[in-house]
């Protein structure tokens, strides 16, 4: 699995590694609702891609993922920060953000983790 999940209070840190495939998106989409149920609330999420080496899915996979995510009922407003330092990562993150129409989910793309965490802290 090319990602790890770490609970940091009200934030879940998702550290992506290696080559990210469509199956990894599917796995993540199934894992996060379970994490929220275990925590008893929907957490904010920070995605970091510092140790990824590429993406092996087409942009249409982002569309399919967004349609899957739209079916998930998020009980409270949450934020998802996407931190990426490559042009390819920024382009894909922007596609995900643009396709997001999930109620109670706000997404934003960042070039560094400090800015993303500040946004998640709502400061």
Helix and strand topology:
Layout: E1 3-8, E2 11-20, H1 22-39, E3 44-55, H2 59-70, E4 78-83, H3 87-99, E5 105-110, H4 113-120
Parallel strand pairs: 2-3, 3-4, 4-5
Antiparallel strand pairs: 1-2
Helix pairs in contact: 1-2, 2-3
Shape: globular
Mean pLDDT: 92
Order of helices and strands: EEHEHEHEH
Helical proportion, percent range: 40-55%
**What's the end-to-end separation, in Å?**
33 Å
The value of Rg in angstroms is 13 Å
Spatial strand order of the main sheet: 1-2-3-4-5
The largest sheet, given as strand count, sense and whether it forms a barrel, is:
5 strands, mixed
Broad structural category: alpha/beta
Count the E strands.
5
Proportion of beta-strand residues: 25-35%
By oligomeric state, this entry counts as single chain
Q: Unreliable segments (pLDDT under 50, ≥5 consecutive)? A: none
Number of continuous helical runs: 4
Give a concise summary.
With 123 residues, the protein is α/β, with parallel strands linked by helices. It has 4 helices and 5 strands, in the order ββαβαβαβα.
Question: Main traits of this protein?
Answer:
4 helices, 5 strands, globular, five-stranded mixed β-sheet, single chain, alpha/beta, 123 residues
What does this structure look like?
There is one protein chain. The protein is of the alpha/beta class and 123 residues long. 28% of the residues are buried. The longest helix has 18 residues, at 22-39. The protein has a five-stranded mixed beta sheet with strand order 1-2-3-4-5, sandwiched between helices. Helix 3 links the parallel strand 4 (78-83) and strand 5. The protein has helices at 22-39, 59-70, 87-99, 113-120; strands at residues 3-8, 11-20, 44-55, 78-83, 105-110. Helix 1 packs parallel to helix 2 (59-70) and helix 2 runs parallel beside helix 3 (87-99). It contains four helices and five strands; from the N terminus they run ββαβαβαβα.
């Amino acid at each position: 699995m090319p990602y790890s999940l770490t609970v940091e209070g009200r934030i879940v840190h998702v550290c992506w590694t290696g080559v990210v495939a469509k199956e990894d998106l599917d796995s993540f989409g199934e894992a996060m609702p379970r994490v929220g149920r275990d925590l008893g609330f929907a957490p904010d999420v920070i995605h970091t891609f510092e140790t990824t080496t590429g993406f092996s899915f087409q942009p249409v996979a982002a569309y399919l993922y967004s349609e899957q995510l739209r079916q998930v009922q998020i009980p409270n407003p949450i934020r998802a920060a996407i931190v990426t330092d490559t042009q390819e990562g920024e382009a894909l993150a922007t596609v995900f953000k643009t396709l997001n129409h999930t109620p109670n989910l706000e997404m934003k793309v960042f070039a560094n983790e400090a800015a993303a965490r500040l946004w998640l802290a709502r400061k």
